[in-house]
Amino acid sequence: MTFMTKQTSIDNLCLAKGMRMTEQRRVIARVIDSSDDHPDIEEIHRRAVAIDPKVSIATVYRTLRLFEDAGIVIKHDFGNNRACFESASRTHHDHIIDIESGQVIEFCDSTIEELQKKIALKHGFVLTGHKMELYGKRIQDNDKIK
Amino acid sequence: MTFMTKQTSIDNLCLAKGMRMTEQRRVIARVIDSSDDHPDIEEIHRRAVAIDPKVSIATVYRTLRLFEDAGIVIKHDFGNNRACFESASRTHHDHIIDIESGQVIEFCDSTIEELQKKIALKHGFVLTGHKMELYGKRIQDNDKIK
DNA sequence: CTACATGCAAACCGTTTGCCCACTT
DNA sequence: AAGTGGGCAAACGGTTTGCATGTAG
Fold first, then answer.
1. DSSP states along B12-68
2. What residues have CB less than 8 Å from B141, skipping those under 6 apart?
């Protein structure tokens, strides 16, 4: 297969869902695909424009909603009043937010995941999703000692 | 001048923090205090106006921020793009959100709380807070009267 | 060629704020 | 009487949308 534009796994997902693939969507897909953090719309737009200046912020909004509805990306709300995104193809994880630096650490704990399912069931619900964020302070060396 | 509004536990907290107690703040405190759900600003305003029509929405915003900063209320973001509040004096709990009706159910699970603390520690953090929301669909088998 | 996607700017919506008057202390 | 709080409406910031044009299929 020829490589005119860089092909991403998201591209394939889009095609599989039958959505029309424009250059903008390809660029945004590539940005998401090659990000290992949780960029917000503005940042995604910035990264997209670096690849192709023709991408407008409105298209970023529209495309991310499209991707989200298609289950291609996951939208987060870390409490900054701005949506943050990451590829849904990344393995599931939750987040620890450093309340001092704002840094985001990822983790996954299957025991908690199991418990959540059970709790939901106990209350008469089928779990369709969850959000768990731990907020904390980094432990200093002297804290560890005591 | 007039002292027509009843005294609430939040009132006392406010006084303890040395904040000036106006009629509006008392009304809003009373609304929060007597709510066992998670009303948003508009709903709090509605309830406040029912007690005293003189309360403006701007004051509701200002007062709730004040209360939040003072640790008197807890602000939630259940993903509707609107802040929801509840009294901080209520015992700790997390939430299950019915993705179909938006209804909010409260629960508390000490096993998960323990695990969260451990996970944070494992990653070098002291847990200072957490947010956990389970999203799910009601399992309906008996309440099907239509 | 047609239907859908994009760019632009205006509209939107929850929230914040400036200004000036009212009220608490 | 001094100074904070409230009401109103305008400002704000992130997000959505109407319209005319561009483009994938």
1. HHHHHTT----HHHHHHHHHHHT--S--BHHHHHHHHHHH-TT--HHHHHHHHHHHH
2. none
Instruction: Read off the amino acid at residue A112.
Output: I
pLDDT band at residue B42 using 50, 70 and 90 as cut-offs: very high
Nucleotide whose C1' lies closest to the alpha carbon of residue A20 = D24
Spanning CA of A58 to C1' of C7, the rounded length in angstroms is 8
Residues of B in contact with A107 (CB under 8 A): 119, 123
Quick one: CA torsion of A58, A62, A64, A70, rounded to 10 degrees?
-170
Report the mean per-residue pLDDT for chain B.
87
pLDDT tens sequence across B78-116: 878 899 999 998 888 999 988 888 889 999 999 999 999
Residues of A in contact with B107 (CB under 8 A): 119, 123
User: Residues B107-120: pLDDT tens digits?
Assistant: 999 999 999 999 99
User: Which bases of chain C come closer than 7 Å to a protein CB?
Assistant: 4-9, 14-18, 23-25
Beta strands in chain A (DSSP E): 73-77, 83-87, 94-98, 104-107, 125-138
Q: Using the structure, give the distance in angstroms from the CA atom of A45 to the C1' atom of C9, rounded to a whole number.
A: 18
State the pTM of this model: 0.78
